[in-house]
Known about the structure:
Helices cover 17% and strands 46% of the residues. The chain is an alpha+beta fold. It is globular and about 40 Å long. Keywords: Signal. This is N-acetylmuramoyl-L-alanine amidase.
Amino acid sequence: MLIRSVIAASLVAxxxxxxxxxxxxxxxxxxxxxxxxKGFHRVKDGHRAMxxxxxxxxxHVYLMYNxxxxxxxxxxxxxxxxxxxxxxxxxxxxxxxxxxxxxQRYQYYAETGHIDGAWKCVKYEGWTRDPDNRVTAWGGRKxxxxxxx
Length: 149
């Protein structure tokens, strides 16, 4: 505790503010619950980092579920290049049901919309690219899962 206070005082004295960057603050404002809407909650095995081939994380993809409506939603939220329009997408497929995809040049996130999925297996994924469209970061689950409601 004393060490943190001394470090904080030193930073203030040096004129260095310990505040998050605007890009981080903007991304933090978008939770998957906020993106998908009221009543949606994160599900077990429903979160993956969106990684490049080299392992860099450009964001996170979340599978969400609303028990009341029986609908699923996928939110792909960027953590890299936030505030800049880059190709970002989200995909959701319900076994024996529908599928939804949203891919455009977004600043912060992509979202699939709501698809009926109660007691049905789902696949999901999210991706985003760098501003030059050279590097893609992908995350998700290509196999069927979350089949229990």
